């Protein structure tokens, strides 16, 4: 297994794949935090004495999440493996000042996450056409 490319300290760059995986992981972690909060509220609701004004728990769910990123990017070839990696970073204010915002943004990425609702079920067998009664060929008359 190859090690990730070394990046000079202080450049705040990340490989695009690592950046996207981190964004997806952050959304999943946020859902876990909300689920844990809801479980704590269920326990508090069930532990409340009868007749008290305990609030019922709320369950939160992300129905769809979109993350838009505008990044400055640089293609870097690693010396040991010869692979090209796309390194991204947030916009450098110096580059924006020199070249303008449009020239400084090299990569626009949109990540959309949505749960799958229903998985399509494959047909067990294709439908068979109906056969005419009598079993013989039919005539148009």
From TrEMBL:
Pro residues bias locations: 123-132
Q: Where is this region: Disordered?
A: 118-141
Task: Output the superkingdom of the source species.
Answer: Bacteria
Q: What is this protein called?
A: Uncharacterized protein
> What species was this sequence derived from?
Jatrophihabitans cynanchi
Lineage at the top is: Bacteria, Bacillati, Actinomycetota, Actinomycetes, Jatrophihabitantales
